[in-house]
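Support request, please re-run this one:
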Amino acid sequence: MKKILILNVIVLSILFSQTWELKYNYPLHRTYGTDITITEHNKYACVGYIKDTLGWENYLLLQVNDSGEVEWERTYDGSDVYSLNECYSIYLTENNGFIIAATNGFPVLIRTDSLGNIIWFREYDVTSGPMASGVYDVIQTSDGNFVAVGTKIMDGMFIVKADTNGNPLWTGYYGFTPSDDALAVIEDYDGSYLVVGRTEGTFIETYLGKISADGEILFQRIYGEYFSMGTSIIRVKVGENNEYLIAGTMYETDDCGAPGDIFLTKLNNEYNIIWERTYSYTTESDDFGMSVQQTNDGGFIIVGSTHPDTMSSSKLYLIKTDEFGNLQWHRVYGDSAISRGVSVKRTSDNGYIAIGRIRETPEDTTRLYLVKTDSLGEIDWVREIPNRHDDISLSVFPNPFNSSVAITVSGGRGLASQTPT
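Re-run finished. Output below.
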């Protein structure tokens, strides 16, 4: 009887837990997670890239269910000439497929259906030399088209607007210097696009540009002082007004070797600063902010990384604030491993899901890292996907159950690889 009771406790924990960690490794490759989106069925579509022992990379897309189980994965071949083939951003399209921002030395957009099968694959700005540019963020706009932002070495910020078939409607270079990077984009209330990133003048500073739907510059501004870099932007509604949040990394001196802080800046509907906040895990930690989202209570969740001190490895770092940017809680993840956070989303159960990468020891392989938390940043258990394809899964019928249950154990999961056409 004791054994049966223990089994029931374990099964119930698996069935009803909404919080977990997933450490995923594509066989014989280092595996990197870069962005995540939530599908209409509350599944998690994740992008990144895989790297073999020779340094050659391929694009990666996988879908994970709310229990932390990988449902399917797709890899896509990139350039046959250059090893750089990385996905950076994913956006759920209006037909429940995906649009992915990437690079293969050129800016790349990949459109897929809801199962990750490629619809089209497009390169842009191909007149420039390879290994020189890429796009880091992409959205589908209210007119049904796509806007992606990134950079081209020696030309500055690169922006492309493409139609639903990937054909460029316009491309352009923006920013103040040839070293500028565009890192994130949103559509504004008036159909224009707000682009955030970094501009490199006397110092590296946070850039905000407003670009019309036709690609014309409406304004370009700089925020912060000394060294700062905006990596994420969102628009929120406050009463009848639109307000904006920019997150990123800043240094309080012009010494970029000094420890950094994560910043959150709120702008009013005229794009002027309402307030600024900075966060750090400890007074000695070196912290990097990567992504911000609004939470159900009107506050904000930020993900990034922290080096707690000079003797510690980096950790995936979550910060929760109230609506005024005041810290409510912060947590690190990965225990003694080396981990980094890149993107975060709010989930339907008022929790959060963050993506990045993790490495248990300096000698271990890098794995894609997913952290699914509750509203307080807590997690219950860890799921590890080993470097093989015969892992065991457990299913229960009916679910939920009362007095009796059938347990099925099976092995393996679906894999697919596709070459862009």
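Residues 1-17, 387-397, 403-416 have pLDDT under 50 and may be disordered. The first helix runs from residue 2 to 16.
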